[in-house]
Amino acid sequence: MFSRILIANRGEIALRIIRAARELGLETVCVYSEADKDGPWLEQADSKVCIGPPPPLDSYLRIDRIIAAAETTNADAIHPGYGFLAENAEFASVCRDCHIEFIGPSPEAMGLLGDKISCRAMAKKAGTPIFPGSEGAIDDEEEAVALAESIGFPVIVKAAAGGGGRGMRVVREASELRPSIQSAAQEAATAFGNGAVYIEKFLERARHVEVQCIGDKHGNAVHLYNRDCTSQRRHQKLIEEGPAPGVPDEIRDRVCESAAELIRNAKYAGAATCEFLMDPEFNFYMLEVNTRVQVEHPVTEMITGVDIVKESIRVAAGEPLSVEQNQVSISGHAIECRINAEDPDRNFMPQAGVVEEYRIPGGLGVRVDSHVVPGYRIPSNYDSMIAKLIVHGRDRSEAIARMRSALSEFRIGPGKTTIPLHIRLLQEPQFLEVDVDIYYVERLLEQD
Ligand code: ADP
Questions:
Q1: Which of 141, 353, 386, 404 has its CA 20 to 30 A from that of 130?
Q2: How many structural domains are present in the chain?
Q3: Among the atoms of ligand 1, which is closest to the Cα of residue 285?
């Protein structure tokens, strides 16, 4: 096992990793930017190192400074959290060159699954369901037109190296295909230095269902069942729950097992999420694999009892997974609401500034993952998520009732947050009846 790990992240996930490390008896080092010098999580770390000014490009994304901090503090591993450098294969490779363990997959596994074209090919082999679409990158526009016609419009042109929604074009008729391929390829080349694009079927009405997996360095991989993250705004998740409601057990198990098989075949060590879109007939199509711990991982921890962050540190240190597939089962239902410092009534305008009032809810089955304390100043440089409220109940309706109660107990001010939006969504008949697709929140907001 390691003796000291460096956390290359901030906020709630830095605190989450500190907690896991402490339980494992490890010391922690936090790197921080000047904007975060008073970050409450830093008090919980054994040591801290300032790595630069507020902009991420000058601090949390500076590989050289993070490695220097790890070397000077004698850290033997680095946990990247999510965002920032978490899915950067170059960072994982520099860590390896410097003999520091990257807590996550190898750069090879990250590269294979991070490239959407090679990921699709691997998924096909593992029996993980994918969208009908091109086998590899498009190199002939004639063939692309013929393929799109055989799949049927609409189709979507996507970049192999895509991320953050860039390099994607929805194409509704044949005449639009060529220009879309050209512009998507150009955008991808500029944004990612890789202009490879492919096409797949575009699903109009779908739910977002994802499978949590974890693998070790001994060739083992398990799934920890699924989560539904259909409540989104502009492709940003707002509410996540698990297990995904209404999915027949037999279909759920088949898709989850295929995701674990994909991770196993990729020789993947660490936490991974296979994201899918699911149509109303419960057909699944893989979107992508996220090669890191996710914001919504607590949902899965609450229903399976597996500590995903601790487990990922253990497997990075070379230990085998502590659970086998037949030891993983689902207990009850969990829901997470992302509490963002944003004003839903003013186009989700970020609310930087001091949090004067901060009182968190409690009680049976209520968990708050947050770095905020009263008097904390939210910097304007980073993500606006300030807390995650997670509840667990014996079933979905108990979890919903518990979440409503916990949301009404939460006091944050004077800045606005997404709490009132969550209270509203948890009363919506569409949410309650799971009659939803990934655009339903936006449609509701437009009606206002
Ligand atoms: P990125 O890596 O850029 O986030 P994704 O492949 O995850 O790209 O796609 C981003 C979003 O675009 C998805 O969450 C989904 O809402 C939408 N999307 C992507 N592919 C499809 C598809 N084939 N059909 C319908 N929607 C899609």
A1: 141
A2: 3
A3: 23
